[in-house]
Amino acid sequence: MLLVRGGTFLMGSNDFYEEEKPVREARVGDFWMDETPVTNREFSRFVAATGYVTFAELPPDPREYPGMLPEMTHPGSLVFIPPEHPVDVHGPPVWWKFVFGACWKRPLGHCSGIEGLEDHPVVHIVHADAAAYAHWAGKRLPNEAEWEYAARGGSNGLPYAWGTELEPDGVGMAKIFRGTFPHENLAPPGLERTSPVRSYPPNAYGLYDMIGNVWEWTDEWYRTRPVGDGPECCSGDRPRPSPARAEDSLDPTSPAPHIPRRVTKGGSHLCAPNYCRRYRPAARWPQPIDTSTSHIGFRCIAPC
User: Fold this and answer.
1) Which of 62, 234, 268, 271 has the most other CB atoms within 10 Å of its CB?
2) DSSP 8-state assignment for residue 124
3) Coarse DSSP helix, strand, coil percentages of the chain, rounded to the nearest 5 percent
4) Count of CB atoms within 10 A of residue 293's CB?
5) pLDDT tens across 135-175, in order?
6) How far apart are CA 107 and CA 105, in angstroms?
């Protein structure tokens, strides 16, 4: 873990997606942060020590999902399956498929494994899985302000963690989608999905993969318009806003049951200029707490 000295910074962005607005002043204290996302190797140690079973390894309870088809009552997780031809990236996400047997140790389903992927970020993790690992390790998950402050690495107000350009002088700074999403993946063989941690330069705080590779869970309940959640402190004479609650995070436009959502940060290897420009510190995504995917992981922090 690396020590991140706290301070005040400009959180959010007014230039990309609505859920990132408004830019506001926020403050965090000192904390220690994992240098990289938790890897398959590290998560394997946790499972070996505790016998923990992740959410994706358990069959869903039909009582919690009224109307569930009987054939869907098997363990599994969402896996990115690229189409063979261009599709409308603004339409339904046809590139996602619920794959039976997919979980952290079988990332593509029953016939897959993590041999050779020990140093890749662990995926197919729901928020409860990440929180369980953090508790075992004597750590916790960061809130949104802590995560964004660390990701910026002192680059206050800049769009990218490293400056003003996505690829300065043509150099890739993070593991994002190379090619035209979702059908044309130009990554080298074996790196079409995640990459080993530390494959790209660290930020100014020495932290790796804060941007790209995998989305990372925070401990923050999602609100559509962030106004200074959690421990953030408003400037001037404005009162401190109340923390977001689980009920605030529900999406009323989604079909029942309505599942609470936590904020994930950092983007992933599926973010691309033609689809999802969330490879930035200010970017945020509302992830249902019961939904694991092949591009979501986590890292932990600890108090000083």
Assistant:
1) 268
2) S
3) 15, 20, 65
4) 24
5) 999 999 999 999 999 999 999 889 999 999 999 999 999 99
6) 6
- pLDDT given at position 241: 54
Q: If you count them, how many residues does the chain have?
A: 304
- Amino acid found at 286: P
Query: What is the token pair recorded at 141?
Result: 């998950």
| Cα distance between residue 233 and residue 214, in whole Å | 28
Q: What angle do CA 131, 137, 141 make, to 5 degrees?
A: 35
Cβ atoms of 205 and 154 closer than 8 Å: yes
Q: Write the CB contacts of 242 (distance below 8 Å, at least 6 apart in sequence).
A: none
Would you say 173 and 201 are in contact if contact means Cβ atoms under 8 Å apart? yes
Which of 223, 193, 201 lies closest to 284 in space, CA to CA?
A: 223
Across 141-178, b (16+ Cβ under 10 Å) vs e yields bbbbbbbbbbbbbebeebbbbbeeebeeeeeebbbbbb
Say if CB 211 and CB 161 are below 8 A apart.
yes
